[in-house]
Amino acid sequence: MITSPTEIKRPNTAQGTVELSGVGKKYPAQGKLADFWALRDVSLTVSGGEVIGIIGRNGAGKTTLLNIIAGILSATEGKAALGGRALGLFNLGVGFQDELSGRENVFLNAAILGADKPEIEAKFGAIVDFSELGDFIKMPLGTYSQGMRLRLAFSIVANLEFDILVIDEVLAVGDALFQNKCFERLMDFRRAGKTLIITTQSMELIERLCGRAALLDHGSLVAEGEPRQVVNRYRALLNSEKFFVGPERKAEKLFTDTKKWADDVSSWGQKLGAKEAVIDAVKMFNRLGLSCNRIKSGEPLKVRVDFSARDIVKEPHFGVAIFRADGVYCYGPNTEFDGCRIPGLKKGRGWFELRFEKVLLAPGEYRVSVAIWDKKETLAYDYHNGYYRFSVRGDNPASELLRLPFKACLARQGLEQSQGGKGKEKDVFMTNEPVEIEVLSGPVSIFRDDGILCQKITIPSAGGRRSRIIFPWLALLPGKYKIFPEGGQPRDFRMVFNRPDHGTVYLRHQWKWGQAR
Length: 517
Known about the structure:
It contains seven helices and 31 strands. It is of the alpha+beta class and 517 residues long. It folds into three domains: 18-240, Rossmann fold (3-Layer(aba) Sandwich), CATH 3.40.50.300; 265-399 and 505-515, abc- transporter (atp binding component) like domain (Coagulation Factor XIII, Chain A, domain 1, Distorted Sandwich), CATH 2.70.50; 407-496, Immunoglobulins (Immunoglobulin-like, Sandwich), CATH 2.60.40.10. The strands form seven sheets. A six-stranded mixed beta sheet has the order 5-6-7-3-8-9, with helices on both faces. α2 packs across α3, α2 (102-112) packs across α4 (146-158) and α3 crosses α4 (146-158). The radius of gyration is 29 Å and the shape is elongated. Residues 1-11, 242-250 and 413-423 have low confidence and may be disordered.
């Protein structure tokens, strides 16, 4: 629901400030039940320009509190004073009229929000541009998908004037690209000094977006302060009420599959993110340290990223991903997967580098994504999606994806994993461990289970004798694969790994990063 603005401006209340003093809300009893207090004795001051998160379990009183601030509900007891114009975002799109066009709904909802006709007319173009609806703005709202309705509803509020914005569980609006756009607009509001009061069950967003958090439980304010401390208090509260916690099992977790394709190649070339940190420049360097966009298969590659942190950034991680031109995910390491903890970024310039020891990709054309993410990859700080091109050169451009190192010799029997000189036949292998494959002499092909040719290997004829292909380390990432020897029976095998990763092949690499002092 988009609510009408609240203005309870008191002489001593600064612009954008919210002052709650002993606020309580009681709902009348039904039948023989006693009256229910949704809130009781809540006192809280929010300074102008502050971003605060209100957290708590379902039924804790969060939405009731936000409704009082937004002016939808009146308090049963206590006082609420606001310094300026407040808008509330609750269930987006409630109040829209299906028989009216998108344009007519813009004027209707903006008027409900308190905007006069001249302001709406002045903002109309910006609303339509932000919603990305184009000519659909002329169509009846009843023809819109739910995602289109959400885009329009958020766009209206995102372009009106306010001092205080109250947001209740509506940070996930539309598809992933539009979510990034909405989150970036919220960050713009924060930088512009707007007051934001937010509820969400995403604790990662609370820690990322808010400068302070407040915890409600059973209608009472039980904690407030630095977001991480309040979030930890909330998690402890949840854990204290679990019925049973069994003994922790400390078995090693093995990953059996991973991401093998780009999400959407049509979105390559876009820059997304909320821009708390901004990627300024990306360069690639060859084995001689020269800037380039072409390397030879098997050579090292260094990716250097320069960035500027516009805000203090908590627990980010850096990522670089390589895709083949058709969208096949080659490899996508990041500092989170690699266990490189980055406590935070201060405001100012910084850099990170990723150096691949050997790029074991076949000759062809490739795309590179670079990103600065939050800890849980909820929304990017900045994400250049498939934005950079580079090519791998080499002899005999081929349809296979990889050029994994191997050697061949006369064979023992079976598909084996070497273990201290003794192998045993098996069909599950750990990424980066040595593997032996027995084949007839001739071409051998390794495929992913989705039909992508990983590597084609030709072994010279050995007079009809069988040969062994020995991979010193089989760098295939988790998933199902097939071996197709010419003249023999295909065989299935699976790769597993003891850590998460994205792509098809593990490329040995090293991270470095820093910021100016």
